[in-house]
Amino acid sequence: MIELLKRRIIVITLALVAVALVSLLALRSRNPEQGWLIEEILQAIAYPVQAGFHNVGREISMLTERYIVLVSLKQENEKLRSRVQALQEELNHHINGSIQFNLLREQLRFLEDNPEKKIFAEVIGESVDNFHHILVINKGLMTGIRRNFPVVLREGVVGRIQSATATQAIVELVIDRRHRFPALVQRTRERMVVAGDEDTLRLVSRDRGIVVGLGSELRMNRVRMLADVQRGDRVITSGLAGIFPKGMLVGTISNVYREQHELFQTAEIEPVVDFNKIEWVFVILRKPGTGNYPLFTNP
Amino acid sequence: MKFLFGLIAGVAIYWMQITLAPHLAVFGYKPNLLLITVLIFGLRWINPWLFVYAAVAGLAQDVYSHGLLGVYGLSFLAAAALANLTGKLIFEQNTLVIALIVVGLSIIEGMIALTLLNILSSEALWWSWFFGRVIPQAFYHGALTPLFLFGLNRLERRLTGWVQPRR
Q1: Is residue B15 part of a domain?
Q2: CA distance between the termini of chain A
Q3: Chain B residues with CB inside 8 Å of A201's CB?
Q4: Number of domains observed in the structure of chain B
Q5: Is residue B30, in this structure, part of any structural domain at all?
Q6: ipTM summary value
């Protein structure tokens, strides 16, 4: 028996590992909310190196930027001297505007001082495959972050928390194909569903063939044919799905597709957030049990 | 000692994947360093630990992508098993042959992963992702294979007696 096991060790190991993985996949699919020890371990192993790599990379890029700045500093200094005088005059006009700005800033400080409402987190990693759009942030369960909490920037929506461990969390971006949420066209208040459309290849219809997209975009599906949707319209969150607070900017409509024989029209949205340049995000903390969001004003 | 060294090497490749791989992206295609190592190890060595390594590498990939634990775990495991089988069938293990096999097995691994994603999530675009992502990435893996083989050969020379190639 032992001899047989030794001879068949490769096949037996393969079968055991396969069974374990299928069981894990089945359990995970059934209960996606539950955290898994293996996930915690893999993220715990990754976290110190990921955070360290991020910090070293940031320092190197800052050093490079400083060097470039020094080289061009002399020329820039001359230009700036001449601009200072012109700006002195402009300053007077802006003083009046700044009074209102200061009032708004105080409101923002009030929000920032309350740690229960939103958390600042740095982006330390991204998706390791080519199919999904995620970010890894350096805050996790210890700071109160939980699955499905909304992730935003001042400019607009970023995504939702896909999973969280003690020290880090994974953010599923709104441009990921799995992500969809209800939104409104700000001008007409038309309701619709926004879905991630990050594919460079998109099949529109048989007669039009494959359309090559522009990159990271969002798409609005099932827009009523009679709905007044135009290029340049601003799209905001409707607050209905229970993920994002109402009124946050999503982006502007870049293209509208209308086909006479179809029941609905489709629109592409250019997101307001540049997902390739995100360095930090805010995670909005929901009050446990209520499902309500704290008041979040977009300054 | 051998197990410890293998564990450290595996963790190092995992760290490389989560930190360096996004910076090695060419035209937006990130290489999968973990998969390349799984395939090369599978082609060269017969060891039951290979399957454990493949499964854990796949799970690591799952954690840092869609979060459905087991999708890449299974596709990596299948790729490792196929690499083992292919290793038995090929006569000459030169760099070009291994690179071509890595391309082929990467495509098969991508097909398995996409099929599983398609079953578990309706949002996966099988054909679009297959032609738009899996195939370019597979060729990128093939281009990176000689570098990995070079590093592995150097490592083997230093550790003669531990990792014996199949031939």
Answers
A1: no
A2: 72
A3: 125, 128, 131-132
A4: 1
A5: no
A6: 0.78
Complete DSSP assignment for A53-102: HHHHHHHHHHHHHHHHHHHHHHHHHHHHHHHHHHHHHHHHHHHHHHHHHH
Report d(CA A170, CA A236) in Å as an integer: 24
Contacts of B15 in chain A (CB under 8 A): 45-46, 49-50
Contact B68 A162 (CB under 8 A): no
Query: According to the model, what pLDDT value does residue B135 have?
Result: 92
Residue at B118 is within a domain: yes
Q: What integer pLDDT is reported at residue B101 of this predicted model?
A: 92
Residues of A in contact with B36 (CB under 8 A): none
Side chain identity at residue A21, one-letter code: L
B124 assigned to some structural domain: yes
Contact across the interface for B30 and A36, Cβ inside 8 Å? no
Give the pLDDT mean for B109-119.
90
Mean pLDDT per segment of 10 residues, for chain A of length 299 residues?
77 88 82 75 82 83 77 78 76 67 63 65 85 87 88 86 88 82 81 65 31 51 76 84 81 82 80 83 72 40
Question: Contact B128/A46, CB-based, under 8 Å?
Answer: no
Nearest to B70 among A24, A177, A201 (CB): A24
Closest CA to A129 of B54, B134, B56, B127: B134
Nearest CA in chain A to B26: A130
Structural domain of B77:
2-7+36-160
CB-CB neighbors (< 8 A) of A170 in chain B: 63-64, 67
